[in-house]
Amino acid sequence: MRQVLIIGREGFMRDMIAAAAAGAGVESVCTDNPERFCGECLRGRFERVLILGCSTLADGRISVERLRARGSRRPEIYVISWHHSEHAVLSLLECGVNQYMTLPLNLRRLCRKLQQTIGPTQP
Questions:
Q1: Kindly report the CA angle at 62 between 60 and 64, in degrees rounded to 5?
Q2: How many whole angstroms separate alpha carbon 104 and alpha carbon 34?
Q3: CB 80 within 8 Å of CB 52
Q4: What is the pLDDT of residue 86?
């Protein structure tokens, strides 16, 4: 079963998004250590990677290429952040991020996006 990986340093935000996703029937894994899950991303375990904040990509701790197999578009990567600057958003999109969402976050919209492509978990 494919899952959503939620990466972020702020535990409350990770847990809030994971709870909303669970309520929508989408299974998620939360971490503040993205390096631990790079291999599993490459093997296709995660359908989506939600990165909370730009710093994980900006400080070089992880790159889009490390999350995807060469030539693959899986997993899709969403960045969720407070930054509204056009330069920051364009830079992330040019690096290969699929979508940039600004805070405050519309959890219903995010969960609909997850359900459309992943589908609810089966009992």
A1: 110
A2: 23
A3: yes
A4: 82
- DSSP H or E run through 66: helix 64-67
Average pLDDT over residues 40-60: 76
Task: Kindly report whether the peptide bond that precedes residue 34 is cis, defined as omega within 30 degrees of 0.
Answer: no
Question: Are 9 and 53 spatial neighbours (Cβ–Cβ below 8 Å)?
Answer: yes
Q: What is the DSSP string of 11-59?
A: HHHHHHHHHHHHHTT--EEEES-GGGGHHHHHTT-EEEEEEESSHHHHT
pLDDT bracket for residue 119 (50, 70, 90) = low
Closest CA to 96 of 55, 118, 68: 68
Q: How many CA atoms lie within 13 A of 74 on its CB side?
A: 14
Instruction: Name the pTM for this structure.
Output: 0.81
Mention every residue, 6+ apart, whose C-beta is less than 8 A from residue 74: 44, 47, 68
